[in-house]
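Supplementary Methods S3. Complex input for the glutathione-bound model.
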Amino acid sequence: MHLYDFPQSPNCRRVRMYLAEKGITLTLKPLDLLSGEQRTSAYLRKNPFGAVPLLELDDGSVIPESLAIIEYLEELHPDPPLFGTTPFERAQVRAWERRAEFGVLLQGTRRFLHTSPYFAERIEQSPKVVAEAGQVLSERLSLFNTHLQDNEWLAGAYSVADISLFVAIEFAAMSNFQLDPAWEHVQRWYSAIRQRPSAEA
Ligand SMILES: N[C@@H](CCC(=O)N[C@@H](CS)C(=O)NCC(=O)O)C(=O)O
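Predicted complex, serialized as structure tokens:
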């Protein structure tokens, strides 16, 4: 089993952080998105959507989508649990993960697409989108800050939801979105994750 990976991709990073937290060793196969390796016919045969991460199993079958990969691995390696342990806990993890994904990671991605020179020739970049995504990021992170006032982690114990939000915040920084120092609970939570060895993944 191996993982097609691009080091700067936030979606690959959350899989790598997940692997580090679980102590799972997987061979990483780097795919150079900058030179367009994801659009070669050999790779498109594996993933017609031309994206990483992609998990390739020993029999050649593949699993796309970072979260689907993580959930597959969680079923194979349930300990330590990163999706909660009861149906209620799992629902909480999934709910906060989705809030992190759509409220923060997606907005950071929109800002990146509309500011990075890498995408300048692929899409029509718009400062309006950058500003609007920044506004959504601020609104959502302020809500996360309120939640983290009374909670050490997003959904009970440390979980995949925390990994997604952490990766999303660091990715948003690449399009010049910084955490507001007034979000003291997000800052405390962020520093705690920064200190975990998995943050280097
Ligand atoms: N929803 C997918 C997103 C996958 C995705 O868009 N990956 C990006 C890197 S973060 C990619 O491969 N982009 C290909 C490109 O830029 O052409 C997931 O969670 O895995």
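The helical segments are 10-22, 41-46, 66-76, 87-113, 127-149, 160-173, 184-194. The chain has a mean pLDDT of 97.
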